[in-house]
Amino acid sequence: MTIAFADVRRVEEIIRSASRIVCICHRNPDGDAVGSLLGMGQLIEHCFSRKEVFFQCVDPPPESFRFLQGALRMRSDYSYRCGDAAIILDCGEPKLTEMMESHPMLFNGSMPTIELDHHPRNPLFATVNIVLPDAASTCEIVVMLSDALGWSLTPDIATCLLTGVFTDTGGLLHSNTSPAVYRTVARLMRSGARREEIVRNVFRTAKLSTLKLWGRVLEKISITHEGGAISAVTEGDFRASGADYSELTGAVDYVNAVPGMRFSLILSERDGTVKGSLRTLRDDIDVSAMAAKFSGGGHRKAAGFALPGKLKPEIRWKVEQVEDEQGRSALR
Ligand SMILES: [Mn+2]
């Protein structure tokens, strides 16, 4: 897994020629999106003191990532000026930026764009596309690129990047945790990444509202004929628990813990959209193919989709009449 030399040079050229650089990550940003966005942008600031860098995302960073340096600089109101270049991070497809209508210049070739991503079916929509499906996280790619360019990392930047490496591997537990991931972790810790800070803020902190939401998710698990563990979260569940949408992240790994399942799925409802989050532990199941049937995508073992609509609760109760030893009928 390497970045082509020609791409490294093209990235260098685009960054060198731009006076303003906007870094963009996907909506509902996760740890890898926030980490790679802040890591990449602040690397540029650290290496080129004269460049202006913007951190753009249509949604604010989830609270658990606000301890990262630069997180409070994330905005949703970037406006294009001449001399700009864009770096798009962790976006498996352009629509995940939610900027296609508001900022067509990002997608029609009228400004130089660089895309750093690890989603396998990425349509390669930027001027330079560094898309490595074998990378466990986009942060891993940012580290490779930075090293190829001879840039230096600060402890704060290394902490941003290690956050994405940790979250996209589920704390180094998912099957995508390759030897390269451990090398990247070592590389970042040598640069001063504060591992304990990430563990405390991201993996060992859960708000009361999050725990209540997860309680609802776990309560509602059901097993399908196809061997799936499925749960669903309605808008009512979000309201009742006081949780916001980002707090659902991670719950699917618990649903996926049911032994013997082929896959797990959490359906969730927000603003007229039903989102599906799919996981599997099995090598012979490709959940990204399942997600693709609903116009979604992702990785073989972790994928998702979003469809316009609402969740319709369907509760089936069956009344079965049985007779006890005395021949009396009873309802069971
Ligand atoms: Mn990612």
Structural account:
The protein is globular and about 90 Å long. Helix 3 packs antiparallel against helix 4, helix 4 packs antiparallel against helix 5 and helix 4 crosses helix 6. The protein has 10 helices and 14 strands. The strands form 3 sheets. It has a 6-stranded parallel sheet. A 6-stranded mixed sheet has the order 7-8-9-10-12-11. A two-stranded antiparallel sheet has the order 13-14. The termini are far apart. It has 2 domains: 198 residues, inorganic pyrophosphatase (n-terminal core), CATH 3.90.1640.10; 101 residues, Diaminopimelate Epimerase, Chain A, domain 1 (Roll). With 332 residues, the protein is of the alpha/beta class. Manganese (II) ion binds next to loops.
List keywords for this structure.
single chain; 332 residues; alpha/beta; inorganic pyrophosphatase (n-terminal core); Diaminopimelate Epimerase, Chain A, domain 1; 2 domains; 6-stranded parallel beta sheet; 6-stranded mixed beta sheet; binds manganese (II) ion
